[in-house]
């Protein structure tokens, strides 16, 4: 039976959508820590997120997941590189949010799907359809317009998009289960994170336990959970719903971030930004419509290629 005819896993859909909602609203959380230096936030985020993920893996599966990676040096190296990419992404995102650039972070995650397409063409030899090339061209025009409006490249958005796209590429090529891969990345980041925290305490930029107060300390610990839980939820959900649905759901996060930047933090969003964002949204609409068309055509071709006696079975999806 074609997978396209199976009923959508509602639990997987809800958990995946929830992960994107958390990512979209997380600027509200990091803004509560504006009085904490961004590098200290990053250190605590990596430290406590690692404690949660590694602890969960050890409790549920022992150390088999770790041995599975260490036996394959190439995989271990790829996860070290992906850990570096995600730490750059997290660090820049925290800095941008705590310094009043929430709108530009949302732009980065609107650009990200199209950056994935470009990487697929340049590094994986994938081919684009005409609508996809049109989408990339329109998005590039939008970035060029924003560059003229800013008077400089929107480097925050482009760095966030590139770092997350490279992270996605490495995790696509790394043959490891999603949460286990996150656990190995967390191991790589644990010592640098601990060093950042201890360096802050030694130099006076960190005041964990004895200076910021228990509310700030609790927020820093919760920041680790807020990092790990959406990633775990995403890893759970993405295995249970079609990638086409995931592709549409991913726009929840930058849309909510943009709303936070404009309506909560009062960041400017004039006509120049509206034109640039409008071009990128148009590109995303073209890209999404083309993807939907292709998935429907592929499903129709699968049904058409089935033996005549099997075709009627596709009309009856199993009930859950």
UniProtKB/TrEMBL annotation:
Keywords: Cell membrane, Membrane, Transmembrane, Transmembrane helix, Transport
Membrane topology: Multi-pass membrane protein
Span of domain EamA: 12-147
Predominant location: membrane
NCBIfam families for the chain: rarD (TIGR00688)
Family designation: Belongs to the EamA transporter family.
Protein name according to UniProt: EamA family transporter RarD
Gene it is expressed from: rarD
């Amino acid at each position: 039976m074609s997978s396209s005819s199976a009923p959508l896993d509602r639990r997987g859909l809800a958990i995946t959508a929830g992960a994107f909602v958390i990512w979209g609203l997380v600027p509200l959380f990091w803004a509560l820590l504006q009085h904490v230096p961004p590098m200290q936030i990053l250190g605590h985020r990596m430290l406590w997120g690692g404690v949660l993920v590694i602890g969960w893996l050890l409790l549920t599966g022992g150390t088999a997941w770790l041995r599975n990676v260490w036996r394959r040096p190439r995989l271990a190296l790829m996860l070290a590189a992906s850990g570096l990419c995600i730490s750059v992404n997290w660090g820049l995102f925290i800095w941008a949010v705590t310094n009043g650039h929430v709108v530009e972070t949302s732009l980065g995650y609107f650009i990200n799907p199209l950056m994935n397409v470009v990487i697929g063409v340049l590094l994986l030899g994938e081919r684009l359809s005409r609508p996809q090339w049109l989408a990339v061209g329109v998005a590039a025009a939008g970035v060029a317009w924003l560059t003229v409006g800013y008077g400089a490249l929107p480097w925050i958005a482009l760095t966030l998009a590139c770092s997350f796209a490279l992270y996605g590429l490495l995790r696509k090529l790394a043959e490891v289960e999603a949460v286990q891969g996150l656990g190995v990345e967390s191991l790589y980041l644990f010592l640098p994170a601990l060093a950042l925290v201890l360096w802050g305490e030694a130099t006076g930029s960190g005041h964990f336990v004895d200076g910021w107060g228990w509310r700030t300390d609790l927020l820093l610990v919760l920041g680790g959970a807020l990092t790990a839980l959406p990633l775990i939820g995403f890893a759970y959900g993405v295995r249970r719903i079609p990638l086409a649905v995931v592709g549409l759901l991913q726009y929840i996060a930058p849309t909510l971030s943009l709303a936070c930047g404009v309506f909560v933090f009062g960041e400017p969003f004039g006509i120049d930004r509206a034109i640039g964002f409008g071009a990128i949204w148009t590109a995303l609409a073209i890209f999404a419509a083309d993807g939907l068309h292709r998935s429907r055509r592929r499903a129709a071709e699968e049904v058409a290629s089935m033996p005549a006696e099997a075709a009627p079975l596709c009309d009856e999806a199993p009930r859950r």
